[in-house]
Amino acid sequence: MVKIGIIGSTGYAGAEIARLLVSHKDVEIRWLVSRSFAGQSYAGIYRNLFEIIDKECSDISIDKMAEDVDVIFTATPQGYLQGQLTRDILDKCKIIDMSADYRIKDVKVYEKWYGMEHHSPELLPDAVYALTEINRDKIRETRLLANPGCFTTCSILTAYPLMKERMIEKDSLVINALSGVSGAGRGAKVANLFCEVNESAKAYGVTTHRHTPEIEEQLGYAYGEDVTLQFTPHLIPMHRGILATETARLKGSYSYDEIKAVYDKYYDKEKFIRTLPKDVCPETRFVEGSNYVDVNFRIDERTGNIILMGALDNLEKGAASQAVQNFNVMFGFNEDEGIDMLPMVP
Description:
Layout: E1 2-7, H1 12-22, E2 27-33, H2 42-45, H3 62-65, E3 71-74, H4 80-84, H5 87-92, E4 94-97, H6 107-114, E5 127-129, H7 132-141, E6 144-146, H8 150-164, E7 174-179, H9 194-197, E8 202-203, H10 212-223, E9 230-235, E10 242-249, H11 256-267, E11 273-275, E12 293-300, E13 305-312, H12 320-331
Parallel strand pairs: 1-2, 1-3, 3-4, 4-6, 5-6, 7-9, 11-12
Antiparallel strand pairs: 7-10, 8-9, 10-13, 12-13
């Protein structure tokens, strides 16, 4: 049995990791860490886990926990892990981090967009950007995983095949993405109250959203050159889901079958990425509660553009279930162990 600790276990992502790992046949959850709820019953906070998880939250330090577990999931805000992680901790256990602390390789870019100093830049070369379908081989070998977030996972996977094949103008990509409210986390914020978000929709982080450089960096690796793109997120009144609609200029004249063949080349053997039939647009309700990503495209012959579309559950493939998928790869388990959930409708 692989011994697990979860730091930030009472946030939405941390709780979802705990829920998924309970049904994982090769896992023992040893520690559920929450400074705010230390000493309280975990099932008292998340009653869906009543008589399923019989543990209390603790406030054990990461260095002490590292002596008792094989892997630590850190579902914590940006800045926590890069201020705590040391080489000694990494030597003791593996880390799967849900924040952006080790996603961006250029420390100056991280510090600019996140507005904080990075306290362990020497560990950045160790970190693997954990998009499973793209970096599976690297994930097997690393001890430090930077698990991507929801906007980035959806945006990158939707455009990756055409970027990799250089079939679109690299600096023409414009991404508009919609997110459910759970993507903002469980913390109490006025802007996320029911009366503030219900019956409304808004753009936010316009030209300044912190996921922009992460998407640019990863798609730049795919293209083989630096990429500049436009990313605009929107908040809409639903619990879960990400829908990305991306517009790009095609570099040539391509048929539907030629584009579809490229998506099949990269995703046909990937269980959790589904390229939909022609003219069927992805919808968040058809991936809710699952690790699936639905993608598709439509060519606009009038403008010479291609419209790329992707949908996923922000708490699953956009966070927790992707973290468990990566955990399975790291430890040599079946990749779908614990996360083979069918989408829920309605």
